[in-house]
Amino acid sequence: IYILAIESSCDDTSAAVLHNNKKLSNVVATQKIHEEFGGVVPELASRAHQQNIVPVVHQALAKANIDKKQLSAIAFTRGPGLMGSLLVGTSFAKSLALGLDIPLIEVNHMQAHILAHFIDEENSPKPQFPFLALTISGGHTQIVLVKGYFDLEILGETLDDAVGEAFDKSAKILGLPYPGGPLVDKYAQLGNPKAFPFPKPKVKDLNFSFSGLKTSILYFIQKQVKENPNFVEENMNDICASIQFTIVEILMNKLKKAAKQTGINQIAIGGGVSANSGIRKALKDAESKYGWATYVPKFEYCTDNAAMIGIVGYLKYLEGKFSDQSITAKARYVI
Ligand code: ATP
Ligand code: FE
Within the chain, where are the H helices? Predict the structure, then answer.
């Protein structure tokens, strides 16, 4: 089975080809235009998707060495995401499926961040059902109980900002360019995580909150800069290490609670923030500390990419879960 997958939910245009559960190609065109605005500008994102989508699909087919006539189905991101961005991928996928007269398969982006673990890769064991998935991305922070490929239950989620936003907004306070998450990670690796203690929020159950942390970082920096205008430059590594340490602790504490509550010790992470070195290390350490089996996706499958849409497409294809041509994009789409 050959699946062509399309992802256009935010600011990356991506296309991938899968042969069964194996990735043949996974092309991502990242939109640089948003950097100068310090965040994604929806209107510009949809225009860039429109420009990128045909070349990106051609590249994905060429890299996979596949002719479009060999495709078995087209999978696409239906949501959640920015409506204007989703519309480009959705319309393109519908048209291509209609033209080639092959099935169309809609995919939930957050489910794809989780099921990315089932893309066949050498030396990468797969999580066993039931497992807990911590999805940490630019728009979401969720703990999901995964009982089967299509049997998912959200146990907890953020009440305000997503963890990726917490990274990006903290980076912005420090004067770092967008998206700042990877930069905070880079500096954090050179700093002292205990240098500046930040308060952790008290949130009920398995839910999260990150807006208070952002505010306390802002006030702390403003206060320090008043005394020493070069405070940020002189302490960048320690500030980033302290922010990252606090965020990782917040995530790990809730994961521990979820593991205890459910009795499940199979733990997987997904979403852009799972590229973070701090959370990766904390999870590795948890294997010996708490007896967990942990699963961390390959870097390529952490941030937005179409291969993760393709694996869900393949799994749905096997079950005959097809969509018809009346399907529309869905900006808010709960798994
Ligand atoms: P969603 O998946 O919720 O719709 P999204 O698709 O915009 O949101 P992703 O592409 O999955 O989000 O993740 C992007 C986020 O991941 C950004 O906030 C980015 O800063 C963050 N991120 C990426 N790499 C790292 C890293 N190494 N450390 C911390 N954050 C990171
Ligand atoms: Fe995403």
Answer: 42-64, 83-100, 109-115, 163-173, 181-188, 211-227, 231-262, 277-290, 307-318
Residue 272 Cβ contacting ligand 1 at under 6 Å: yes
Q: In 80-107, which positions are buried (b, 16+ CB within 10 angstroms) versus exposed (e)?
A: bbbbbbbbbbbbbbbebbeebebbbbbb
Burial class (CB in 10 A: 0-12, 13-18, 19+), 330: middle
Q: Is 263 left (phi over 0), alpha (psi -120 to 50) or beta?
A: left
**CA-closest residue to ligand 1 atom 2:** 137
Residue nearest to atom 19 of ligand 1 (CA): 181
CB distance 84 to ligand 1 below 6 Å: no
- How far apart, in whole angstroms, are the C-alpha atoms of residue 23 and residue 161? 33
Q: What is the pLDDT of residues 174-192, one digit of tens each?
A: 999 999 999 999 999 999 9
Residue 179 CA: nearest ligand 1 atom is 20
User: pLDDT tens digits for 272-299?
Assistant: 999 999 999 999 999 999 999 999 999 9
ipTM of the complex, rounded to two decimals: 0.98
